[in-house]
Design goal:
Chain A: GO terms for molecular function: 3-oxoacyl-[acyl-carrier-protein] synthase activity. The structure holds two protein chains of two kinds. By secondary structure, chain A is an alpha/beta fold. Chain A is built from nine helices and 13 strands. In chain A, the strands form three sheets. In chain A, strands 1, 4, 5, 6, 7, 8, 11, 12 and 13 form a nine-stranded mixed beta sheet that branches. Chain A has a two-stranded antiparallel sheet with strand order 2-3. Chain A is globular, with a radius of gyration of 18 Å. Classes of the chains: A alpha/beta, B mainly alpha. At the A-B interface, helix 6 and helix 7 of A face helix 3 of B.
């Protein structure tokens, strides 16, 4: 028995902000593109519900996986910008999806939150307590953005992504490595004023070291090398960070997925959004080996290896019993 | 992997190699060409420092290279941290 990603879905707010919308901050499209790779980002309306956006992403992930809401017993949402402080957004998302009274809660681990949630989902399935877990990352970072700070305002976007994590038959078991370091809280945090503060260059340094180091670690745990990754999906904070990690690991450029140009940094929504977009672009095939890594406030970080839809490459007899409409 | 001999010449040669890998035109790289003219920005400099650390097992941080505007200045900062 192993665990795979059975499907992914994305949902973005309609409003697009281009780099030209930030010229009042004395910056330019050229500067932003060169330093970050970001060309545009989405913005959730001030009175809009993030739970609704998350629900859309989750519904698409369930549809992509062919898993029915009745087969979901655990829902985890990674977020730092939920509509309400309590209860967790996962409860509302599950109810909107028609999932009947599941275990549902939020994970707050900054930009690494999705990988923390995914690690939990894998553990739940490996323990035999569930065959499918719904994991979502959803953020309205515009709610914690200092819109007068050009160093951070241009970087952040809103969006939601989700995956269905499922029991599967296959030989490659997921490997995850997570960590945190509270001695460096001041590098990236949201304080009492509810605005995000960041020391960019030090973040860059730590992000490259920790994402590359932990991806290397999980590759070794799986007995794999960088060439074995079919797609490398790093937290889309900044294209320059992703490329630096890629160079450090020796992953070839054509195996690296980037959508930061379209969505900017969406924190915990970043990786599931990227997975959904890669799937839409037909860059994923059943059984594909994915390398995932993230880094964020805490400091917190994580890396993991997991397959994509490894269910589909096996015989019908090996499919999970409650595989929905698959 | 063995750490290469820590000499100014070795560091300079390595730094030029790294800049080229980062996409900087090697033909244009001189000790006094400004980073602005070469297209070397703050993130390149940060990545450069990290590469030097790994290659020579020293500890150069982003802040050490923050105000450097040319290869000569960056190398000077690295030499100080390396005790050269």
């Amino acid at each position: 028995m192993t665990v795979t990603l059975a499907g992914a879905g994305a949902a973005l707010p309609e409003r697009v902000l281009s780099n030209h919308d930030f010229v009042h901050l004395n910056t330019s499209d050229e500067w932003i593109v060169q330093r970050t790779g970001i060309r545009e980002r989405r913005r959730l309306a001030a009175d809009a519900s993030l739970a609704e956006l998350a629900t859309d992403a989750c519904a698409r992930a369930l549809s992509d996986a062919g898993v029915a809401p009745r087969d979901i017993r655990h829902v985890v949402v990674a977020t730092s910008t939920a509509d309400r402080i309590s209860p967790g957004m996962a409860v509302e998302v599950a109810t909107r999806l028609g999932i009947d009274r599941p275990a549902a809660f939020d994970v707050g681990a900054g930009c690494s939150g999705f990988l923390y949630a995914l690690d939990h989902a894998i553990a739940v399935i490996e323990s035999g307590r569930s065959e499918h877990v719904l994991v979502c990352g959803a953020e309205a970072l515009s709610r914690i953005t200092d819109h007068t700070d050009r160093n951070t305002a241009v970087l952040l976007g809103d969006g939601a992504g989700a995956v269905v994590v499922s029991k599967a038959s296959g030989s490659l078991r997921p490997a995850f490595a997570l960590g945190s370091d509270g001695t460096q809280i001041e590098l990236l945090y949201v304080g009492q004023d509810r605005l995000l503060r960041m020391r960019g260059r030090e973040i860059f340094e730590n992000a490259v070291d920790l994402m590359a180091g932990h991806t290397q670690l999980v590759l070794e745990q799986c007995g794999l090398g960088p060439d074995d990754l079919d797609l490398f999906v790093a937290h889309q904070a900044n294209a320059r960070i992703v490329q630096a990690v890629r160079r450090r690991l020796g992953v070839s450029a054509d195996r690296v997925f980037l959508n930061v140009d379209k969505v900017a940094n969406t924190s915990s929504a970043s990786i599931p959004l990227a997975l959904a977009h890669a799937n839409e672009q037909r860059l994923l095939h059943p059984g594909a080996v994915l390398g995932l890594t993230a880094f964020g406030a805490g400091l917190s970080w994580g890396a993991g290896i997991i397959t994509w839809k490894s269910l589909a490459v096996h015989g019908v007899d090996e499919l999970p019993v409650s595989g929905g409409e698959r | 992997m063995a750490v290469p001999s820590l000499t100014k010449k070795a560091v300079e040669g390595f730094v030029v190699d790294v800049l080229e890998k980062l996409g900087i035109d090697r033909e244009q790289i001189t000790l006094d060409a400004s980073f602005d003219d070469l297209g070397v920005d703050s993130l390149h400099v940060t990545e450069l420092g990290q590469a030097v650390n790994r290659e020579f097992d020293i500890q150069v941080h982003a802040a050490d290279l923050e105000d450097t505007q040319s290869l000569r200045e960056a190398l000077g900062a690295i030499y100080v941290k390396a005790g050269l």
